[in-house]
Amino acid sequence: MAIDISQYTIEQNVPIPARKSSGLKALAKKMQPSESVVMSSYSRAHSLRNRIYEIGHKATVQRINVETNPRTRDYRVWKLGEKK
């Protein structure tokens, strides 16, 4: 099926809008080394960890309260020092 290109208009000099940081990336930037955040799911915790890696820091994730509540789904994410 051919596309009717007459329905489209070509525009020039339209600026590209600035991209906003995702919520997790903004959180990663706001955190200081040795600070931590509790996340309610494994996937969100690892997404935050990945955003911390992207901005040039080390990070670690650990499930919390495993001994007292084995069914917990909460994870703590720590922002560590800069990557070497």
Structural class: alpha+beta
Radius of gyration: 21 Å
The low-confidence parts are none
Q: Main beta sheet, described? A: 3 strands, antiparallel
Please count the helical segments: 2
Proportion of residues in β-strands: 15-25%
Question: Tell me, what's the shape?
Answer: elongated
Overall pLDDT confidence: 88
Distance between the termini: 54 Å
Q: What string, H for helix and E for strand, traces the elements in order?
A: HEHEE
- Compute the number of strand runs: 3
Give the strand order, joined by hyphens, for the main sheet.
1-3-2
Determine the fraction of residues in helical runs and give it as a percent range: 25-40%
Characterization of the model:
The chain is α+β, with helices and mostly antiparallel strands and 84 residues long. Helices cover 25% and strands 23% of the residues. The chain contains two helices and three strands, in the order H-E-H-E-E. It has a three-stranded antiparallel sheet, with helices on one face. Helix 1 packs across helix 2 (42-54). 14% of the residues are buried. The mean pLDDT is 88.
